[in-house]
Design goal:
Strand content: under 5%
Structural class: mainly alpha
Radius of gyration: 18 Å
Number of strands: 0
Helix content: over 70%
Distance between the termini: 44 Å
Order of helices and strands: HHHHH
Mean pLDDT: 89
Number of helices: 5
Shape: flat
Length: 121
Amino acid sequence: MPLTRQTCLLFVLNLFDAVLTVYWVRNGFATEANHLMAGLLDLGNAPFLGVKIAVGAIAAIVLSHWGHYKIARYGITVTLAIYLGLMVIHIFTGLTAFGLITDAMIDNASSMTTVVFALIN
């Protein structure tokens, strides 16, 4: 069974991640957590975007060619879950950057998380 839709979604999410990362970093709202990609971003937007898009394209080619293997289906599921998590981070970064989420709200959420974990243990 081909993974065409999943592969396209993964490529689009990779592209969104790249563009949003450049925007957040260049405007001072975030930093690139991946040291290799941060080094490329220090060289400029073009090297960063070129490598990010190339990695996405290579992944798409590999998945198109070997998508019939069970491990490829599991791999794309895990990778899509990770990228969807990254999109949530981008959304929260945007909400924070535009002042819709304040530091006090983040502190309150952190303290509630601590209380929940204390109750679980």
